[in-house]
Amino acid sequence: MSKEQIEKRGLVFVFILTFAFLVLVGRLAYLQVLHGEEALVKAETQKIRKLTVPAPRGKITDANGVVLATNRPTYVASLVWTKEPMSDNSKELLAEILDIEISVIDDARRRLTANPFTPVTLKVDVSAEEHTRLKERGPELPGVIVEPIPVREYPNGSLASHVLGYVLSGSRAGLENTYNDRWIDDQGNEQLGLEGINGERLVEVDVKGRPTKIYGQVDPVPGNNLVLTIDAALQETAEKALERTILQHQKGESFWGFPMQKTFEFAQTGAVVALDPNTGAILAMASYPDFDPNQFAIAPYVLKDSPQQKEWIEYYQSLERNQETTPLLNKAIQGTYAPGSTFKMVTSFAALEAGVSPRETVNSSGSFTYYGQTYGDWAVHGTTDMKKALGRSSSVYYYVMGLRAGIEAIEDWAYRFGLGKPSGLTDLTGERIGTVAGPISKARIMPEEPWQSGETLSAAIGQSFNAFTPLQMANYTAMIANGGIRYKPYLVQEIRDADDNLLESTEPEIMDQIDFDPDHLEVVREGMLSVTTVNNQPYGPWAGTASFVFGGERTIYRDGGDELIQVAGKTGTAETWRTTVYRDSRYNHGWFVAYAPYDNPEIAIAVFVENGGSGAGAAAPVAWAVMSEYFNTNKDLLDRYLNPVEGEE
Question: With a threshold of 0.85, does the pTM exceed it?
Answer without folding.
Answer: yes
